[in-house]
Amino acid sequence: IPKGPGNTKVAKSTAVPPGPPVYLDLVYIPNHSNSKNVDVEFFKRVRSSYYVVSGNDSAAEEPSRAVLDSLLEGKAQWESNMQVTLIPTHDSEVMREWYQETHEKQQDLNIMVLASSSTVVMQDESFPACKIEL
User: Fold this and answer.
1) pLDDT in tens, 103-124
2) Strand residue runs (E) in 1-134
């Protein structure tokens, strides 16, 4: 804990400070959707039409269930019920379980989870893809 003026200790916080919300079209949830970096306050403040959720490491519990739950809790506190689309970059057990267990709440909050059924083929590589129109 760093010392402030007059030798008083000032606590250092990693939480998002309170303030007005920021509206964006597309947000990539940082650090493989790790709950150490993204919490309810993040979703209360960073409001987007689309959130990209990465993470495909089940041993590291990626994406984090806590982050996915934070999206629900943060979105519930928005004044409007604007459509939000969640775009996972990988099919994971955590994502499937969360989707099934919270599907009704997702519908109430106007959150859609986008599953990609398209594949892009480039040279010797193929990968899933989705098209987003902003």
Assistant:
1) 999 999 999 998 766 677 888 8
2) 22-28, 46-53, 84-88, 111-113, 118-122, 125-129
Distance CA 94, CA 19 (A): 31
Count of CB atoms within 10 A of residue 34's CB?
18
Q: What pLDDT sits at residue 38?
A: 86
38, containing H or E segment = none
Whether the pTM exceeds 0.90: the reply is: no
**Rounded Cα gap, residues 38 and 15, in angstroms:** 9
Phi, psi of 22 (to 5 degrees): -115, 130
Long-range contacts of 10-17 (CB under 8 A, 24+ apart): 15/39, 15/41, 16/41, 16/42, 16/45
Structure tokens at 114: 């986008």
The residue ranges of every structural domain in the chain are 22-119
Beta-bridge mates of residue 127: 120
DSSP H helices, the chain, are 30-33, 40-45, 65-75, 93-108
Residue 98: how many CB atoms within 10 A of its CB?
Answer: 23
